[in-house]
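Title: Comparing notes on inverse folding

I've been comparing how different people in this forum approach sequence design from structure. To keep things fair, I'm posting one structure and asking everyone to reply with a full sequence. Here's the target:
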């Protein structure tokens, strides 16, 4: 399937979810993350939820990471479709940008080369580890700047597309894992 078709399909599927369903699915997904062998690492990058887009609630996962004394890193979008990454602390001020994305106003910058694990937002994924995001390329650009050994974990409310995503580009970065409320996919 083509990316634009998948975006339309999964935005529609999300639109039909209630807040309660998203909360329950997000908790199930968080519990599955515990099974992935990443707990010896220190710097974990995670996106903040855009509630209006009915995204996965990442707060339970952030709470889990903080409870395990991990350094939580959150992104801030830049004008050139890149991400700047900041350490999440008790004093971090969060504000929504023009797209409604919650972001840190400022803080302690963390370089991409320090990040061990990235939790990647997505709308859809296939069984080869290809993902479909919102189409701006923020995460593909960011992931190419990370170390080769950085672990990339997609978070999805839904299972994989059985058909492969047919319009994958050379710039698209594949996932190492994708976690859903039902199971973990390793690529």
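Reply #1:
Here's my take.
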């Amino acid at each position: 399937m083509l990316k634009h078709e998948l975006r339309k399909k999964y935005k529609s599927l999300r639109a039909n979810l209630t807040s309660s369903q998203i909360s329950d699915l997000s908790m199930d997904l968080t519990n599955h993350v515990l099974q992935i062998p990443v707990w010896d690492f220190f710097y974990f990058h995670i996106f903040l939820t855009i509630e209006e887009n009915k995204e996965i609630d990442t707060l339970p996962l952030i709470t889990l990471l903080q409870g395990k004394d991990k350094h939580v890193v959150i992104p801030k979008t830049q004008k050139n479709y890149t991400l700047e990454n900041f350490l999440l602390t008790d004093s971090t001020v969060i504000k929504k940008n023009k797209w409604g994305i919650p972001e840190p106003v400022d803080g302690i910058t963390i370089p991409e080369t320090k990040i061990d694990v990235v939790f990647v937002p997505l709308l859809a994924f296939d069984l080869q580890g290809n993902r479909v995001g919102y189409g701006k390329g923020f995460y593909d650009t960011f992931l190419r700047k990370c170390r080769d050994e950085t672990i990339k974990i997609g978070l999805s409310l839904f299972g994989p597309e059985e058909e492969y995503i047919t319009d994958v580009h050379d710039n698209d970065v594949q996932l190492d894992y994708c976690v859903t409320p039902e199971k973990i996919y390793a690529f």
